[in-house]
Each structure stands twice: as structure tokens, then as C-alpha cells.
Design goal:
four-stranded antiparallel beta sheet; globular; alpha+beta; 450 residues; 5 helices; five-stranded antiparallel beta sheet; 29 strands
Length: 450
């Protein structure tokens, strides 16, 4: 009877291992088949419905992609190691500007060492021609690259400078920095990451009405508004460090002005694995909309489009998707670690869209907290995965997913973790059933029992 029980347990473990290995193998195969690598081409004619996406996983997966209305890839640019912000150029149909970076070696760097080359570059998608508007060689330190730059006028750009914890305005014609603000003027050094390495991680910048500049100070969990003369506008700050019920290391906030139902901010609340919108009312920021689903993992961009749809870049979910006004997914494409997406012809980021409150958009979540929940009727396996995901620290989960192959989503990560537990449990049982014993001492001994 005892041998039969052991056989049943061994068969059970073997089946679990085989099933898990098959699941991971299928996921890896599907991930390889979904790779967006194609030969570089240019767009011919129609730009309507064209979506431009920047992606930066590992170096080989970093690229700028253009998807046509039929969902096919029309153009790929993989010149740089990393691509970040991308914006349509005002007054053009097929021209975009992006921030990008790559490692360089030798003469341009101090003492001939390795350094980082950051650019604001313009790209004509019809001809494939590029034009560097502004460039700098940066120290080779962690997160030294520009993640965002926003055009002010024909010559001037405002840049989010992660390396030096500042925001600056540069005239790209003269190369002169005309204004700058440093986070040390406002934030305590004890906040955020340990100073000086990646202290604030200022990852987004946008010019709003009256010339105020909205910035995302990621490591302080805040969105801050700057007056160019007086600095931080204290009563407009959105978020509070370590108050993750509001924001948790956010990316790419978009400002929606009063003419379109605001003031409001639509933001990718990255480590909360959701897209969220806040409305300004009676001097306070109030959450008015939220969207997530079971697949969402570390989103880093969301744009409200003129038709009421919302375009989302889900980085560790490895997809770009568009929501209809009812919150349903209209389409999605698989992209390795997307950072930002823009639909040409709809304006810069959320410039052409209205607020969720003005549109009456319903919130959708996976945990039953919002009025329109997606959790009911889900398979028990999926509900269990969501339960486990919500128990684990989001920062750690997203960090692990970022370094793993892009075909690994949370479901695959959970299976890998479960696989490890199964192997350890089986090994422990086999040891207990064996005639060997492990004795700790000097030296450690493995003894065979009688």
C-alpha cells in the first residue's frame, strides 16, 4: 500500500512537471512567432489609423515600430539601444520626433571611456530620412538617458533630464540652455532612491496652459507642476511618496485642459498595474476613472483619443491596445516591452481627447472595486492568478518580468515559481523516502541507513 501511494505521488509530480514544461514551451514558441522584426520600410500614402510605437526591452528588442490600419508592421527603426517618447510633428502627416539613446565608446566620451549618447531626433516616415535636433553625450551611469522631450515652439524644447535630476529648456538652433529647474531645489535628499544614483527618475515633461510645466517625478510617486519663475506650484501636486493608493512610480502623465473637460491628468500608474485618471475639482485631485485587466503588467503610457478611445502601452504585458468608450478592448498587438504609442492624426498624446468624466467612461478593474468589474465570471484559475498577483509586491514582480524573456508574463512567471516548488517538494519527499540521512557537523556527512 505504501509503495502504491509513493507511485501515485510520483506520477502526480511527473504530470505537473510535464504539463508545466509544455505550457512554458508553447508560450516561448508563441513569443518567438510574435516577434515584430521585419526589414525597414517606409509608409506609402495613407497615415490614417497608423500607430507609432517605441519599445525597449533588451537591446535587440529596442526599436520604433509603425503599424498600419490593417495591423501589419509598415516600418521599423532599430538604430538606437533604447527608444522612449515619440510625438507627431505639428503641421505634418507622417513626421514624428522621438527621444532615443545608445552606448558609444572612444573619443566623444570623457577619457575615451564608454558613455551614453542621447538625442531628440525627427523622422519622416514617408522617406525614412532622419534629422537630429539636439544631442548630448551623457555619463555612463544608471538611467542617464532622456525619456521625454516636449516641443515649446519652433526652436525650443523642454527636456526631462534623468541623469541630473532636472528639467531644462534648450534652444535647439543655438544649443543654449535657456532655463532649468533642479529637483534639489524642492525635494529632500532622503526621498526617492538613495541619492545620487537615479534619485528622482524624472521620466516625463509636458507644457500646459499658461506655460506651466508638468513633470513626472517617478521615484517620489508624484506629478508636479512647475512655474518657470517661482518653481513648484505647491497646491497642484498630484500624489505623495509611498502613498500607493494614488500613484506608484508612474509614467507618461497626459494633461487634459478645461476646454476638454479638465483640468485632468490621465496617467499610467505603472506598479499599480492600471491606467487611472484624476480630475481637478475645488482645489483637489479626485480619481474619476480607472482601467485594468488580468494581463496588465507595468503599463507606461495611455492616450485619450478624439473619438473617446484610449490607447495604452502595457510594457510587461508586451502589448499595445486600444479601448473603446465602454472599456472593451477593440484591438491589441504584441510588442516586446512597449514604452509609448501614438496614433497619427489624433494630436500629440491626449491633446485631442476629452476627460473620462466628460465622456462618462465607465471604470473597469479585476478586483471588484469599481462599478464595472471584470472579475465576475472569470475562470477559477485566472481568479487565483489575480489573487496571487495582488499579494506579491508589484515592484519586485515587474522588475523580474523586465529582465526575463518577453514571452514570460505573470502566468508564465507563476508557473515557473510553481515548478520550482514542485521540484523542491518532490526532491524532499524522495529524500525522506530514501535510506539516506544528512548529518550536519564537521564535515557534513551523507549516511546510508540500514
Amino acid at each position: 500500500m505504501r509503495k502504491k501511494r509513493k507511485l501515485i505521488v510520483r506520477v502526480f509530480f511527473a504530470l505537473v512537471l510535464a504539463g508545466s514544461a509544455a505550457f512554458l514551451g508553447l508560450s516561448a514558441t508563441a513569443g518567438a512567432a510574435g516577434d515584430s522584426s521585419v526589414d525597414q520600410r517606409t509608409i506609402a500614402g495613407d497615415y490614417s489609423g497608423t500607430t507609432v510605437i517605441t519599445a525597449h526591452g533588451d537591446t535587440e528588442k529596442s526599436k520604433l515600430l509603425v503599424y498600419g490600419p490593417d495591423g501589419g508592421v509598415q516600418y521599423v527603426n532599430s538604430t538606437y539601444d533604447r527608444y522612449f517618447d515619440v510625438d507627431p510633428e505639428p503641421g505634418t502627416k507622417n513626421t514624428v520626433t522621438y527621444t532615443a539613446a545608445m552606448h558609444v565608446y572612444g573619443a566623444p566620451c570623457q577619457a575615451g571611456e564608454k558613455c551614453s549618447y542621447s538625442v531628440i531626433e525627427q523622422l519622416n516616415l514617408t522617406t525614412g530620412e532622419t534629422n537630429v535636433l539636439y544631442k548630448q553625450y551623457r555619463p555612463n551611469i544608471h538611467n542617464s538617458r532622456w525619456h521625454d522631450a516636449d516641443r515649446i515652439d519652433e526652436d525650443r524644447w523642454v527636456v526631462a533630464d534623468i541623469a541630473f535630476d532636472r528639467v531644462f529648456i534648450v534652444n535647439t538652433t543655438t544649443g543654449i540652455v535657456e532655463w532649468s529647474w533642479n529637483a534639489q531645489n524642492h525635494f529632500d535628499m532622503k526621498t526617492g532612491n538613495p541619492y545620487p544614483e537615479d534619485w528622482t527618475h524624472i521620466n516625463d515633461v509636458e507644457v500646459t496652459e499658461g506655460g506651466q510645466i508638468m513633470i513626472s517625478v517617478r521615484n517620489q510617486d508624484r506629478i508636479v507642476f512647475l512655474d518657470q519663475k517661482t518653481g513648484v506650484v505647491e497646491d497642484r501636486t498630484l500624489g505623495e511618496e509611498d502613498n500607493y493608493s494614488v500613484l506608484y512610480e508612474q509614467h507618461n502623465p497626459d494633461y487634459i485642459d478645461a476646454e476638454r473637460g479638465g483640468p485632468a491628468v490621465l496617467v499610467a500608474d505603472s506598479h499599480n498595474n492600471r491606467i487611472v485618471e484624476f480630475q481637478r475639482s475645488n482645489g483637489r485631485w479626485m480619481q474619476t476613472w480607472e482601467w485594468t485587466d488580468a494581463e496588465m503588467q507595468w503599463p507606461r503610457d495611455a492616450d485619450r483619443l478624439p473619438d473617446g478611445n484610449t490607447l495604452i502601452s502595457d510594457s510587461s504585458g508586451n502589448r499595445v491596445l486600444e479601448l473603446g468608450p465602454d472599456g472593451d478592448v477593440l484591438w491589441s498587438v504584441t510588442v516586446d516591452t512597449p514604452y509609448e504609442a501614438e496614433k497619427l492624426g489624433t494630436g500629440d498624446e491626449s491633446a485631442g481627447g476629452q476627460t473620462a468624466q466628460a465622456l462618462g467612461l465607465p471604470s473597469k478593474t479585476t478586483d471588484g472595486t469599481a462599478a464595472e468589474s471584470q472579475s465576475s465570471g472569470r475562470p477559477l484559475t485566472l481568479q487565483f492568478l489575480l489573487f496571487v498577483r495582488n499579494l506579491l509586491p508589484a515592484l519586485a514582480v515587474n522588475a523580474v518580468l523586465y529582465v526575463l524573456p518577453t514571452w514570460v508574463h505573470f502566468a508564465e512567471l507563476a508557473v515557473i515559481g510553481g515548478l520550482g516548488l514542485v521540484v523542491l517538494s518532490w526532491a524532499y519527499l524522495e529524500y525522506r523516502w530514501s535510506r539516506f540521512s544528512l548529518r550536519f557537523g564537521r564535515p557534513v556527512r551523507l549516511d546510508r541507513g540500514d
